[in-house]
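Why do we bother with a discrete structure alphabet at all? Because it lets us treat a fold like text: something you can write down, compare, and reason about line by line. To make this less abstract, here is a complete entry for Mth938-like domain-containing protein. Read it the way you would read a sentence in a foreign language you are learning: slowly, and without expecting to understand everything at once.
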Amino acid sequence: MARFEGFVPGRWALDAIGAGGFRFAEMSHKGSIIATPAGIRLWPVTQFSEVTLDSLQPILDEAGAIDFLIIGTGPDIAFIPPALREPLKQAGITVEGMATGAAARTYNVLVAEDRRVAAALIAIP
């Protein structure tokens, strides 16, 4: 299996999560990721307190192609604060936070339904 080197274009379902990373597109990656309609990229976030509007810029860059953002908040659910929620809403994106496992499963379902979805997923052990 190939190692993920930073960006893979295309829309990919997640094949597996856990052990500190993700498998997708016949590759594996240790660490967090952002998945958008354009592709999957590295996300240098290790815990929810590091999620900022700047860290979510790839989502905002593709706002015209995204209706729904799922933030995988790590092993536990975290509240998405208005400072993140409102700018995304203004860009036309509804955001929902959930534990990363549930977020990855929800993302896969929405991708399979061909929905306009993105995910920002914090890796879990």
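What the structure line is telling us, in plain words: The helical segments are 57-61, 82-90, 100-112. The first helix runs from residue 57 to 61.
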